[in-house]
């Protein structure tokens, strides 16, 4: 990872899981120590074929509302730790969208939790943290 002075922007992925909470807390500590800008991102996992589905606006609205609630909860957690953050809500393939947003925001590091899937679950569902780590040109800190 870059030196303390070089960490200016951090993107933390947040889905409300325990590993994501640990990633959020660690990202807050790093942001505080480095005086870095922190972005919290939630990606509603919507297959690309359905990301702009006009026939399912009610479903999409519910999915995005849940994402807004997760991000608000994350902001409250950060506020209690004395850290401010900007939120980013998106939809699509989480791994792909996190990497794209990290590039767009020009962050210095991505912090993401790992749920520790194994076996068939990992084979079928894949791992967002692994996908991000494999495809990002930015340093990725995976928190277990």
What does this structure look like?
A five-stranded parallel sheet has the order 3-2-1-4-5, with helices on both faces. The model is unreliable at 120-125 (pLDDT under 50). α3 crosses α5. The protein has one domain (4-143): Rossmann fold (3-Layer(aba) Sandwich). The protein has helices spanning 18-34, 57-80, 94-105, 119-125, 128-135; strands at 9-13, 37-45, 86-92, 109-113, 140-143. It is an alpha/beta fold. The chain is 47% helix and 21% strand. It is globular.
Q: Count of helical segments? A: 5
- Report the top-level CATH class: Alpha Beta
Helix content: 40-55%
Spans of at least 5 consecutive residues whose pLDDT stays below 50 are: 120-125
Q: Please count the beta strands (DSSP E, at least 2 residues each).
A: 5
User: Mind summarizing the main beta sheet?
Assistant: 5 strands, parallel
| Overall number of structural domains | 1
For CATH, the homologous superfamily is named as: HUPs
Strand order of the largest sheet: 3-2-1-4-5
Distance between the first and last residues' Cα: 18 Å
CATH topology (fold) name: Rossmann fold
CATH architecture: 3-Layer(aba) Sandwich
- Multimeric organization: single chain
Portion of residues in beta strands equals 15-25%
């Amino acid at each position: 990872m870059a030196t303390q002075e070089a960490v200016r922007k951090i993107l933390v992925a947040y889905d409300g899981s325990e590993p994501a909470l640990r990633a959020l807390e660690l990202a807050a500590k790093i942001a505080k120590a480095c005086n870095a800008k922190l972005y919290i991102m939630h990606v509603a996992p919507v297959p690309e074929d359905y990301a702009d589905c006009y026939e399912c606006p009610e479903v999409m609205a519910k999915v995005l509302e849940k994402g807004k609630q997760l991000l608000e909860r994350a902001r409250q957690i950060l506020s209690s730790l004395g850290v401010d953050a900007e939120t980013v809500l998106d939809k699509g393939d989480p791994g792909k969208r996190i990497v794209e947003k990290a590039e767009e925001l020009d962050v210095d590091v991505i912090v993401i939790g790992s749920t520790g899937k194994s076996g068939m679950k990992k084979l079928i569902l894949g791992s967002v943290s692994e996908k991000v780590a494999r495809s990002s040109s930015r340093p990725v800190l995976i928190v277990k």
